[in-house]
Amino acid sequence: MAAIIEFKKVNKFYGDYHALKDVNLSIDEGEVVSIIGPSGAGKSTLIRTMNGLEGISSGVLKVDGYDLGDKKTDLNKIRRNVGMVFQHFNLYENHTVLENVMLAPRIVLHRDEKENREIAEKLLKQVGLLGKEDSYPRQLSGGQKQRVAIARSLAMKPKVLLFDEPTSALDPEMIQGVLDVMQSIAAEGMTMVVVTHEMGFAREVSDRVIFFDQGQVLEDSHNPKDFFKHPRNLRAQEFLSRVIDH
């Protein structure tokens, strides 16, 4: 498989604060990669660099063949192919569910309106929200909003889907519905990078688990089940002992 995301000695500074430290990382097409680690580790900064929401300070970051460190790179072109699902949904409150899903393909891709609607309805069915087309975000639960956000990202037919802690703002009973949708997308072969606190998802659905702390990749495992039983890195051992079965 070809690498679709490549980090080579990537650094990110906020003033004097060193958020990403010499990150070397390669993600292949079709992989489902979970990034775990303590709060404040730099996980969200890492994933936000992958579609240019955060710039890098040094090193090389290539996404879908484009160099994100090159000022001539058109970030909007990259974001067409790299979808992002945020922690707090970021839906348009004054648009219906259906309009939220149809808006970007209409404006950015100039997709035919009939086709756009058919794709949007199909995606809403996929995420379990058929029948909610005419609802507004304020009428939905948090879990439903997040599933609309996922459908909206999929409507652009991206090559990569990024998730930045997609369940952390949800009530516990809402989480599983979102994780089920994410698992169904993963099963279809979508390249996914997921910053998550959901250890069950990381263990059962991921092809790889990356343990990230203090701006660095401390462990990169291609065998998630083995990683959760026997992490090699001492910091990862400490982290998992606190989060598993608590």
Describe this structure in words.
The structure is a single chain. By secondary structure, the chain is of the alpha/beta class. It has a single domain (3-242), classed as P-loop containing nucleotide triphosphate hydrolases (Rossmann fold, 3-Layer(aba) Sandwich). Helices cover 37% and strands 26% of the residues. It has 9 helices and 10 strands. The protein has helices spanning 43-49, 75-81, 97-109, 113-126, 142-154, 172-187, 199-204, 224-229, 234-243, and strands at 3-14, 17-28, 32-36, 58-63, 66-67, 82-85, 160-164, 191-195, 208-213, 216-221. Strands 6-7-8-3-9-10 form a 6-stranded mixed β-sheet, sandwiched between helices. It has a 4-stranded antiparallel β-sheet with strand order 2-1-4-5, with helices on one face. Helix 6 links the parallel strand 7 (160-164) and strand 8. The longest helix has 16 residues, at 172-187. Keywords: ATP-binding, Nucleotide-binding, Transport. This is Glutamine ABC transporter ATP-binding protein. Pfam families: ABC_tran. Residues 5-239 form the ABC transporter domain.
Architecture, CATH level 2?
3-Layer(aba) Sandwich
Largest sheet: 6 strands, mixed
CATH superfamily: P-loop containing nucleotide triphosphate hydrolases
Determine the N-to-C terminus distance. 37 Å
| Mean pLDDT over the full residue set | 94
Beta content comes to: 25-35%
Number of alpha- plus pi-helical segments: 9
Gyration radius, rounded: 18 Å
Quaternary assembly: single chain
Share of helix, binned:
25-40%
Helix/sheet category: alpha/beta
Taken in chain order, the helices and strands follow as EEEHEEHEHHHEHEHEEHH
